[in-house]
Design a protein that fits this description.
Layout lengths: L25 H9 L11 H17 L7 E6 L1 H12 L5 E5 L2 H9 L9 E4 L16 E5 L1 E2 L4 E2 L12 E5 L16 E4 L11 E6 L1 H11 L11 H8 L10 H17 L2 H21 L3 E3 L11 E6 L5 H10 L15 E5 L6 H18 L1
Parallel strand pairs: 2-3, 2-4, 4-7, 7-8
Antiparallel strand pairs: 1-9, 5-6, 8-9, 10-11, 11-12
Length: 370
């Protein structure tokens, strides 16, 4: 492949477009430096517990927390939460929607030997499946945004058996897509996407029904590892702490992003930014003859992770390589999808102006590739 130098005038001011971890704003790093006195201190003492309390309060404000809901957090990220849900949240059987890699991971965790086999509803990549009530199902679970494919699903409560819970994996959507938290019982996410922090932490909005379920299962005879006990996470969160030591830098970066979002207009502000950025990419892909949105149905297209297919004559790998050589990074497709495409994060912290510059850079590279 020939060496391609993109003119500086075309390049984004910030070339980070990864789907997670993603761009961290300079203001977050400044806040981290200003908070350095708490790094390396006890997470059981007031300064760190106050930090956790501010994060929980910021999350509650951002999501307009419904009456009786609680903000719970724990270590391990969304991967740990899937296993925790199998131990602490699913009573007998779940229904899992699978339309990408991460929905499949939760479905696999829900096939635990102490549970009935889940009702798994699978869709081809680029499309999505839908939930529907089934007798005996007590948890309905799906990703709000499938990071691997760029498919986004609505958050709407499933009215199944009495007491059935709606559980939403919001890792790459939370903080970038407006949502009515009351339409779910568990809305959980990790902070390395729209919140531009690091991984290794999960946060969840739990409804009163979900809290009752967690406490009831914990009070029964099911074996639950301490680290995967949502009851432990709930009890510790009420004390503004985690069961084991959290990464303090992660919490500080998250606090700064929450302050920025809430101070700028809340979730509607953040969602408007991601919608502007993603729309620019989709509109561009539909306007040229060598690219197209991977997700065919506009109603299913993500506003935070955009996947663009390229015609066979255009090598998307060559495009991403040229972009990377010029400091524009992490536009490669999801590794297991194996498509001739680019995947671009349009999270809240990514400037829409940089997305428009990215489009110009892609056009330049395509022209140079001939």
């Amino acid at each position: 492949m020939p060496e391609i130098t993109i003119p500086t005038s075309l390049l984004p001011a910030d070339g980070r477009f990864g789907s997670g971890p993603t761009k961290v704003r300079q203001e977050q790093l400044d806040h981290l430096m200003a908070s350095r006195e708490i790094l390396g201190t006890s997470h059981r003492q007031a300064p760190v517990k106050d930090l956790v309390g501010r994060v929980r309060s910021g999350i509650a404000d951002l999501f307009r927390l419904p009456e009786g809901y609680e903000v719970v957090l724990g270590n391990g990220g969304s991967t740990a939460f899937w296993d925790a849900a199998a131990f602490s949240l699913i009573e007998r059987r779940s229904q899992n929607l699978v339309f990408g890699e991460f929905g499949q991971k939760f479905a696999s965790a829900a096939a635990a030997p102490w549970l009935e086999q889940p009702d798994v509803r699978t869709a081809e990549p680029g499309t999505r499946s839908t939930a529907s009530p089934v007798e005996g199902v007590d948890v309905y679970a799906w990703p709000q945004n499938e990071t691997s494919t760029g498919v986004m699903a609505p958050v709407t409560r499933v009215h199944g058996d009495p007491g059935a819970l709606t559980v939403i994996d919001a890792t790459s959507a939370a903080g970038g897509v407006d949502v009515d938290a009351a339409e779910s019982d568990v809305y959980y996410f990790a902070p390395q996407k729209n919140f531009a922090s690091d991984g290794g932490l999960w946060l969840a909005l739990l409804s009163p029904a979900a809290i009752e379920r967690v406490e009831r299962i914990a009070g029964g005879d099911r074996y639950i590892p301490e680290f995967l006990s949502l009851k432990n996470a709930l009890d510790n969160s009420r004390l503004n702490q985690t069961l084991n030591t959290p990464a303090l830098a992660t919490l500080v970066l998250l606090e700064a992003q929450l302050d920025w979002m809430n101070g700028s207009g809340g979730l509607s502000f953040a969602a408007a930014r991601t919608r502007e950025s993603s729309s620019a990419l989709y509109d561009w892909a539909e306007s040229v003859d060598y690219a197209s949105p991977f997700v065919a149905d506009p109603a299913d297209r993500s506003q935070v992770v955009v996947t663009i297919d390229f015609a066979d004559a255009i090598d998307a790998k060559a495009i991403s390589s040229a972009l990377r050589a010029n400091g524009v990074v992490d536009t490669e497709p999801y590794r297991k999808l194996g498509r001739n495409q680019l995947r671009v994060a349009t999270y809240a912290g990514i400037d829409p102006a940089d997305v428009r510059a990215l489009i110009g850079s892609i056009e330049y590279v395509v022209d140079q590739l001939g």
